[in-house]
Target: Sex-regulated protein janus-A
Amino acid sequence: MSDQDLAKIPLVDIDEEGIFKYILIRVTGKETADGTEPSKLVVRGYADCEWHADIYERTQGTIKGTGLDTECLGGGRIEHNPEKKYLKVYGHSTGYGKADHAESKRVLLTKYKNYEIETSDEGY
Model:
């Protein structure tokens, strides 16, 4: 059951435009008979969330009751310019640390295939 639930979780859910905080989350299903735990990385970012923790709480709320676990792997900021088909992933989260921006870019490319996506460790 949790494998189906895991498959239903979108890889990317970010605001359509602007500069906002984001987090990288590992979503994990129940251990299978062979001892493996199915998982995937997802990116979440919303301008109406003041703190990275607010994004994580929102995400946990949508996953609650599915039997899946979540772990925040870090955060930063995203600049999203749909007119230019451009995303910039940068900075860090004071509470969760810096996300692996290269991994975040990989996940974002699953939805934004035609975008230029820049990563940087600079900025907050």
In short: Strands lie at 12-14, 18-28, 39-45, 69-81, 86-90, 116-120. The mean pLDDT is 94.
